[in-house]
Model the fold of this input.
Amino acid sequence: MINSANLSLFFFFFAPVAVMNSISGEFESGSIVSLLTKPVSGTEVFLAKLSAALITLVPAYTVLILADVVGGTMTYGPHERLYLTPALLAGAL
Done:
């Protein structure tokens, strides 16, 4: 069963995993060399990639949760505590 705690935990771990996969892919292809020759630290590269992953994943999860709420409402009728949906979205951050 997916609840807000499980979704938040999944989101919390998925973004860094996506970033690590991105960075390891750049090491494999060799494109990280040109990136690291720029005057930025490895930490800045990681944080920039993490920010990009979050910017990409937040709208995706927002659409997913809203589709879940709308689909659940259409299938099972009105939900109690639907006012908690914004808190669920904020908790996923």
Notes: Residues 4-91 form one domain. The radius of gyration is 18 Å. The mean pLDDT is 75.
